[in-house]
Design a protein that fits this description.
The complex is a heterodimer of chains A (118) and B (113).
Chain A (H helix, E strand, L loop, with lengths): L3 E3 L3 E4 L5 E7 L5 E8 L3 E8 L6 E2 L6 E7 L2 E6 L8 E8 L13 E2 L3 E5 L1
Parallel strand pairs in A: 2-11
Antiparallel strand pairs in A: 1-3, 3-8, 4-5, 4-9, 5-6, 7-8, 9-10, 9-11
Chain B lengths: L2 E4 L4 E4 L4 E3 L1 E4 L4 E8 L5 E7 L5 E4 L2 E4 L9 E3 L8 E9 L7 E2 L3 E6 L1
Parallel strand pairs in B: 2-12
Antiparallel strand pairs in B: 1-4, 3-9, 5-6, 5-10, 7-8, 8-9, 10-11, 10-12
Classes of the chains: A mainly beta (118), B mainly beta (113).
Chain lengths: 118, 113
């Protein structure tokens, strides 16, 4: 059974702390994504990665960074957590859109990490 | 740019009622269209998809037809169950190197027994 796992389901941190959110996928996918989900705003893309050591900014990268040292692992880093980063964080992975002749690229999601910054 | 608009929720229905959740899109080129579902406490999972005009995606009794002329991809189910209570997201992606998916804001569905 294919899986995307996230290191924590719930996390509570203090303002100013450095926070690491880890995501691991076992599907050998090239693409990995980090989103945040907030009521009334849906999913917003923070960062994504096409390959190891590659990263691209999404729609809301400010205050975040990412690391992808291995294909299966994609980490989201909050350098100095703030209260407005309290949110649900979702990781996803997918094959590249042209792999195997596919014209679409289904994303597989982890269960999410609910982060509260006090 | 590309965007997805779906009806705001929450939508509350009785069990066995007919469901429609509206979704319209704006896109350049020829997008693929998706419905994702998020059950309580879980991440998103793909419910159904359609990759070209007039395609019908279906799964678990849900259906949606890719209508290019109206740029729509409405989700329907003939008889909903309590277990269908979830948040539903309409989404699109365009083929090519840009592998991002554009999501709508989601529609929360409550089914009453």
């Amino acid at each position: 059974d294919v899986k995307v796992t996230q290191s924590s389901r719930y996390l509570v941190k203090r303002t100013g702390e450095k926070v690491f959110l880890e995501c691991v996928q076992d599907m050998d996918h090239e693409n990995m994504f980090w989103y945040r989900q907030d009521p009334g705003l849906g999913l917003r893309l923070i960062y994504f990665s096409y390959d190891v050591k590659m990263k691209e900014k999404g729609d809301i990268p400010e205050g975040y960074s990412v690391s992808r040292e291995k294909k299966e692992r994609f980490s989201l880093i909050l350098e100095s957590a703030s209260t407005n980063q309290t949110s649900m964080y979702l990781c996803a992975s997918s094959l590249p859109s042209l792999a195997g002749g596919l014209t679409y690229n289904e994303q597989f999601f982890g269960p999410g990490t609910r982060l509260t910054v006090l | 740019g590309n965007s997805v608009t779906q009806m705001e929720g929450p939508v509350t229905l009785s069990e066995e009622a007919f469901l429609t959740i509206n979704c319209t899109y704006t896109a350049t080129g020829y997008p693929s269209l998706f419905w994702y579902v998020q059950y309580p406490g879980e991440g998103l999972q793909l419910l159904l998809k359609a990759t070209k005009a007039d395609d019908k995606g279906s799964n678990k009794g849900f259906e949606a037809t890719y209508r290019k002329e109206t740029t729509s991809f409405h989700l329907e189910k003939g008889s909903v169950q309590v277990s269908d209570s979830a948040v539903y997201f309409c989404a699109l992606t365009t083929s090519g190197r840009d592998d991002k998916i554009i999501f709508g804001k989601g529609t929360r569905l409550h089914i009453l027994p």
